[in-house]
UniProtKB/TrEMBL annotation:
The protein's name: AB hydrolase-1 domain-containing protein
Alphabetical GO biological process terms: glycerolipid catabolic process; proteolysis
Organism: Nocardia nova
Gene3D superfamilies assigned: alpha/beta hydrolase
A GO MF term: triacylglycerol lipase activity
Domain AB hydrolase-1: 41-102
Amino acid sequence: MAMASGYACCRIVHRRLGRSVARGSPEVVMSRMSSRYPLFYDQLGCGNSDRPSDTSLWTVDRFVAELVAVRAALGLERVHLLGNSWGGMLALQYTLDRRPAPESLGSRMVTIEDASHLCFAEQWDTFHAELTDFLAEVDGRPAQPTA
């Protein structure tokens, strides 16, 4: 399912652990609005995905690794990435782990309903500092192609 040149796929990271993207949600609305090829998948422990009882798997790094694995498995060379709430946090971490942003990552669209996913003040301070640096870096870059 490799896509042709251009940013043909919009990867959508759903917003809440334990919730499938198949149930009515903002992601469904976005898919109907998109002229791209929206890609939804159920994260670990959600919807039709595995539901392991091993709590050591429930880490941000693990969920970001899922993003990498899905993209690699489908041969998605160039994508836009949309994350909402928890998915927004994962989309940001995915992008922060890949600085400077690769050409293969078009736009990063993130909505965060709250920062409750960051449980400790230290996590928020680190996240905020990295996000500020990242946004400054992005502002200095030329616009990415959209077609």
